[in-house]
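Lab notebook, bench 4. The sequencing result for the construct came back, and we need a structural model before the next group meeting so we can plan mutations. Quick request posted to the team channel:

Model the 3D structure of this chain.
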Amino acid sequence: MSEIELAYYPGCSQVGTSVEYDMSTRACCKALGIRLFETPDWTCCGATPAHVVDHALAAALAGRNLAQAESVGARQLVTPCPSCLLALRSARSRCQNEAFKRRVERLLGRPMPMEVESRSVLQVLVEELGIERIVSSATRRLEGLAIAPYYGCLLTRPPGLMAFEDPENPTSMDRLFSALGARVAPFSLKTECCGAALAVPKQEAVLELSGRILEEAEATGAEVLVVACPLCQMNLDLRREQIERRLLRRFSIPVLYFTQLLGLALGLDAERLGLGLHNVSALPTLTRLRQAWATEK
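Done. Here's the predicted structure in token form:
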């Protein structure tokens, strides 16, 4: 199996509040024959807030990281974070306008790199590597595990810009984990917003939105809520106690990154995947899986 080499942009969250996403992303890619080389001297892309201040500045922040990838010969930049991906794609798209591009280039002090494409790690795994190849690399089955895949509102939208899957009914995680043996619950809120970065100015709205997602996930019978976004994971996991106080009920479902669950199927160690770093422990579920794997042996 030949190795795929890709420029990697972790983004700010992956070296802070969602370090387990970065850990599990790197571990899974290595196990699948993908060599990620981190973009040199990368900086914040501006994510979702920067464009509120200045669209050209926001594009320059993202454009600098595209330029850093270009400086090492990369023509493709992958990131695990949908907010980062949106910033990177928006910058290149907005710079199709020559007047806007000139404003950005004045801020950058260099030409805007228009040939570097950005994609999500999930998109690369599904479209470039392929589900069949991933399944062939797995050493464990996820039989008996019920999951609810939650894509969030940015991974596939806006559709013309993100160019990945059906924006209202994405199925990449559904298909991947079904192929690995899990039971995928019919989850009607898979692309609903959790409140994203509004937890400070609009905390009550975020708690209500995130609470609805947890309610629906548990109602499907899912044992794990699987996410692909650090902001979603933070709202659904780290803010659990705030949500419970707001809705006057308890939730027990853990929230894992898709790369953590994939890593388990690939036979990777739980510590290497950062599975002990969540607010709501997935240990009971993982213990049952380990017992099943031990029985199979």
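Strands lie at 4-8, 34-38, 76-79, 117-120, 146-150, 183-184, 224-227, 255-257.
Will bring this to the meeting.
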